[in-house]
């Protein structure tokens, strides 16, 4: 039996109706004559779940809080409780898909069962099917356990024979046995016992706002008391557009993505009549892969460290905005600890989803730094991936909200496209689709600087007469 880390235990303890601690991703498969059905999906998962044993385990508390909870086999494991089927009403529009995903990512996982769910969503326009992967932040740490999408998606279109063993749950230990084993372990590993004590003290502090808890998040359009409901929006763009802007103005594709998001937030705030001045900025937590010693480790050859970035929302010129973002990230690139995007994209399977989960963990472990938005950007493979022989067409990350942060943005590049997934609090951001449109327009502004033409005035300025 393995013990939850203090960070995992914190995520488990902080899970609440308004802050469900789960990371998700929406995958859409190419339309085919015989689309993936529920029975085939169950079969594929059963063939691969042996690769991730924790997907059949549940956390069990130790009496007296002598240690963090332990992972034990779920003796009542029933895969049909985790793999579910849903359908969109006709005609299966993108808007209906977004509405359904918003409801599903707001729904808490059952903490008495293994901490994951997978929804097969049918009825999309054109005969496509979608898959929504959900996993608790205490489950996917990128080291002991990777995201289920990484296990199911593979480079080959043909189906492989994967060895499968009959699984039998190990009997859950009695409370007295848990206490005895925990005391013995604490005696053998005093350093670990100290971290557990620190975790328990931190748990108490989080219940006392005047003593501890989450750092003070600045007020503004992106800050709110979270509700129980979420909205979801997506945006897809050509990767070549980002590369052209990078080639013309310097920096990296990541810089261009962040500059487009910055411009999109600026435009969105202006549509809401929010105060925007030349000095307006937002603090973003941008987790990045590093080879340095600090950061959360992964089993994928690197660690993930949080980078606090000031987004120059007040800058009206898109090129200047890009240069400011690029300059702010210059130190990260020049330290030699940054992991090249090409290296991350070349990892086997769909490691992208695991890195998004680890990035969300990093962001939530650094709440005291007062960031207003979390942005995860992970480059994925440029060759097509397949699930049960069917090609993956689109994939959108869903990064959880926490604290008072009303919006989070996940970005994945895959198969020559860049996919944005935007999660927002339903009450605070009813116009999340406008934010997605504004990001698209901000990217178009940057592309127009490369093409040497301006077909529209920058958002917030009046279009000249006669145009």
Automatic annotation (TrEMBL):
GO biological process: biological process involved in interaction with host; glycerol metabolic process; response to hypoxia; response to nitric oxide; triglyceride biosynthetic process
Pathway: Glycerolipid metabolism; triacylglycerol biosynthesis; Lipid metabolism
Reactions this protein catalyses: an acyl-CoA + a 1,2-diacyl-sn-glycerol = a triacyl-sn-glycerol + CoA
Signal peptide: none
Domain O-acyltransferase WSD1 C-terminal: 302-446
Molecular-function annotations in GO: diacylglycerol O-acyltransferase activity
Residue ranges of domain O-acyltransferase WSD1-like N-terminal in the record: 4-257
EC top class, as a word: transferase
EC number, UniProt record: 2.3.1.20
One Pfam family this sequence matches: WS_DGAT_cat
Keywords annotated in UniProt: Acyltransferase, Glycerol metabolism, Lipid biosynthesis, Lipid metabolism, Transferase
Cellular component terms per the entry's GO annotation: plasma membrane
Gene3D superfamilies: Chloramphenicol acetyltransferase-like domain, Nonribosomal peptide synthetase, condensation domain
Protein family (similarity comment): Belongs to the long-chain O-acyltransferase family.
NCBIfam families: acyl_WS_DGAT
The protein's name in its UniProt record: Diacylglycerol O-acyltransferase
Native source organism of the sequence: Aeromicrobium yanjiei
């Amino acid at each position: 039996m393995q013990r939850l880390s203090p960070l995992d235990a914190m995520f488990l303890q902080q899970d609440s109706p308004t802050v469900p601690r789960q990371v998700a991703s929406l995958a859409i498969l190419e339309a085919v004559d015989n689309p993936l059905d529920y029975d085939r999906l169950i079969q594929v998962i059963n063939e691969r779940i042996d690769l991730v044993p924790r997907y059949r385990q549940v956390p069990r508390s130790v009496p007296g809080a002598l240690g963090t909870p332990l992972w034990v086999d779920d003796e009542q494991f029933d895969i049909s409780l985790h793999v579910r089927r849903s359908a969109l009403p006709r005609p299966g529009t993108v808007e209906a898909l977004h509405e359904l995903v918003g409801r599903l990512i707001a729904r808490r996982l059952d903490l008495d069962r293994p901490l994951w769910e997978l929804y097969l969503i049918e009825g999309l326009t054109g005969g496509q099917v979608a898959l929504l992967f959900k996993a608790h932040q205490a489950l996917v740490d990128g080291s002991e356990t990777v995201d289920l999408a990484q296990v199911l998606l593979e480079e080959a279109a043909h189906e492989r024979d994967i060895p499968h063993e009959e699984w039998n749950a190990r009997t859950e230990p009695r409370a007295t046995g848990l206490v005895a084993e925990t005391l013995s372990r604490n005696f053998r590993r005093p350093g670990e016992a100290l971290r557990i004590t620190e975790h328990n003290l931190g748990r108490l502090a989080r219940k006392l706002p005047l003593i501890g808890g989450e750092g003070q998040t600045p007020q503004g359009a992106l800050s709110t008391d979270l509700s129980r409901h979420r909205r979801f929006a997506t945006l897809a763009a050509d990767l070549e557009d980002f590369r052209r802007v990078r080639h013309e103005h310097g920096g990296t594709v990541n810089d261009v993505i962040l500059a487009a998001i910055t411009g999109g937030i600026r435009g969105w705030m202006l549509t809401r009549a929010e105060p925007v001045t030349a000095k307006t900025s937002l603090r973003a937590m941008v987790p990045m892969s590093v080879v340095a010693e600090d950061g959360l480790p992964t089993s994928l050859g690197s660690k993930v460290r949080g980078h606090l970035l000031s987004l120059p929302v007040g800058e009206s010129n898109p090129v200047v905005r890009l240069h400011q973002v690029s300059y702010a990230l210059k130190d990260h690139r020049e330290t030699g600890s940054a992991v090249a995007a090409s290296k991350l994209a070349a990892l086997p399977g769909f490691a992208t989803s695991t890195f998004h989960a680890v990035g969300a963990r990093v962001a939530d472990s650094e709440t005291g730094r007062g960031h207003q938005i979390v942005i995860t950007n992970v480059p994925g493979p440029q060759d097509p991936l397949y699930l049960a022989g069917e090609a993956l067409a689109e994939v959108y990350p869903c990064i959880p909200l926490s604290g008072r942060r009303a919006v989070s943005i996940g970005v994945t590049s895959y198969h020559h496209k860049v996919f944005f997934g935007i999660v927002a609090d339903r009450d605070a951001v009813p116009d999340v689709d406008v934010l997605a449109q504004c990001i698209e327009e901000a990217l178009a502004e940057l592309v127009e600087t490369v093409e040497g033409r301006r077909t529209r005035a920058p958002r917030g300025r009046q279009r000249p007469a006669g145009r």
